[in-house]
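Journal club prep, notes for RB
We'll compare a predicted complex against what the paper describes. Inputs for the magnesium ion case:
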Amino acid sequence: MSVINILSPHVADLIAAGEVVERPASVVKELCENAIDAGAKNVTVEIRGGGAAYIRVTDDGCGMSPEDAGVAFLRHATSKLRDEGDLAAITTMGFRGEALAAISAVSKIRLTTRERGAESGTLVLLEAGEILEMQPFGCPEGTTMEVRELFYNTPARQKFLKSDRSEASACQAAALRCALAHPEICFRFLRDGDEQFFSPGDGREDSCLYALLGRETAANMLKCVGGQDGIEVSGYVSSPSFGRGNRGAQFFICNGRAIRSQLLQAALEQAYKNTLLTGRYPGCVLYLTLGFGSVDVNVHPAKTEVKFSEERRVFDAVYYAVLSALAGEERGRAPSAELPASVKPRGDFYRTMSAEQFRESGLSASSPRPAVSGAAAARAPSGSWRPTGLRAPDPQWQTRFDLSAPVSTEKSAQAPAAAGFPAPAGSRIVENAVQNVEKPRLPDHKIVGEAMKTFLIVEQGEALILIDKHAAHERMIFDRLKAQDRAVMAQSLLAPIPLRPDGADAELIEKNAALFSSLGFEIEPYGEHEYVLRALPADMEAGDAAAAVEEICEKLRRGRAPRPEDARDEYLHTVACKAAIKAGWDNSPEELERVAAEVLSGRVKYCPHGRPVSVVLTKKELDKLFRRIV
Ligand code: ADP
Ligand code: MG
């Protein structure tokens, strides 16, 4: 008996549609790209109800003739590619002729379009890929594509849609990426009738960034220019003191296409090595221009991933451009300078702290800057191109590509920016809850001193013990929180702290209100996209709270813990780390004594991430080092 069926074209279309149209944001992206390819100068994107209900993209591009409007929705119908030779160097956003076929297969569409200079336009109505009506129509030059009831005929897809709010922010992010990629086009994005952003379309990277990412982000970016041998890099990177809790502010644009690339991400982050607080990520808007033949965009239907033919050279171009920008930080010009007066500042939707908290957090520009130049910069390998005087990338960069997890778990012990943290007022170090266990008899100890405001030096009997005060205290807090099998104790704030999470974080905060409250954060909605923090975990400084919330959101997003009971530990790590005393702080002798006693008691050996909190040098080892004995 025969069991193999040939699928009907309709079913085949539905299956193919799934690859291109995953969610409303994919529709926004594809329609914006078609508008860009059509040579539009102005593009307006409007969504309602998270996009699944309604998406409209209007452009003033070349428009379509009636004949083209009739075939544009067929699979493999494209004006951008003729033969296989064209595939080798793709210069347009689209080329597969799939998007309109895929979108129309799973929605209801109304297209109006008029070719430049044509007498009249065309109206086309479609449902599930079938043309219901097509007729001449009076409309402006350009194209308006309305997509309604996305996935109305594929209930399985519909079920996977998230809340309107999160679909809407994905749509907005998709349009924003297109807008950033094309400073020469004026983009407008409206959600439920309200304008969310616009870009001036004056062709300037700086005004585009300023208008789209907000004044504060722009003011903390450094100009970045570089490249070599046909690879050009330009754009902006964040100042090391302006790290974020996730990679949401990294934008890479390759030949006009916003892409995701672990290679570029690694190159960027390598350049910030040891200059950013751990757990913070740099932001960037980087434009790469290279020969159309040296980059293959035909890797995946969504075309957000690309393959570079010469990865090493691309990596180096980005790495050294960023490193030079950081080295010349003082000279770098913030893009907000010299802006045309027509550019109004938009909402800062990439900001989570108020300017004041930001200053107070010690991360502000006035805190000591890490030096990127100098001795460390002098080391550079031979062979690959580099500007003189800049540090070479880690030779292991290729193996470091799995950047889904934070690169390192080391905390601020190494982070130079931490040196600017203010010393807290009263003692912050609370005895460990498990401390009332009977103590073993130990020889007396003496704190000899503290080195680099980071390491305690303790003498005990015949041993010298070096203690990382932050790591040890972090462990003490973590153990205490874990031992109390209940909600983390919260301290109410006299002046609530405003929080401005981005769309994705806002949704996580709302969904996980109970979790945040069990961790000691009392967060209340305050206006449309704002929240206030009314209470925070007992030991935490107000200046650390916003970063802690952001980090917990990032952990929620990653959902890394294999078992639910481990998940809580992950969040407690964040609370403990942010609440602990930090390298660079001045601590009272009593505080340091508590930490030393706890470590010497043997109860605290490793920080919650598994790093040792102390290093022991015995008298014998010291004698050997000095060749007093052999
Ligand atoms: P692709 O973009 O890969 O060619 P699409 O399915 O997205 O495939 O579009 C099919 C064709 O429809 C395009 O090649 C183009 O000729 C035409 N088209 C789509 N959108 C527009 C638009 N906004 N303006 C002008 N022509 C368009
Ligand atoms: Mg297209």
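Talking point for the session: Confidence is low (pLDDT under 50) at residues 330-386, 398-427, 430-440.
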